[in-house]
Design a protein that fits this description.
Length: about 80
């Protein structure tokens, strides 16, 4: 699984976490607001990039996901 570029160390080891992102190289962490501060915890939509996926459906762009792929991540 490929990560994003870490803004601190520049390595591609910036991984998503339930609350934001974390670099596995330098430990830099970033907390992102989920569901635009409305509460709850959405999973990141791979289509639009926002943390607005609830019940396998993105409330931002409407993309849907199969339960099989997101089950474990949604429970994290
Ligand atoms: Zn880093
Ligand atoms: Zn989306």
């Amino acid at each position: 699984m490929a990560g994003k570029m870490c803004p601190k160390c520049g390595k591609m080891t910036f991984f998503e976490t339930p609350t934001g992102r974390r670099c596995s190289k330098c430990e830099y962490t970033m907390t992102l607001p989920v569901n635009e501060g409305k509460g709850g915890r959405g999973y990141k939509c791979s289509n639009c990039g926002k943390y607005t996926v609830f019940n396998n459906k993105c409330s931002n762009c409407g993309a849907t996901y199969s339960e099989k792929n997101n089950d474990k991540k949604l429970r994290a």
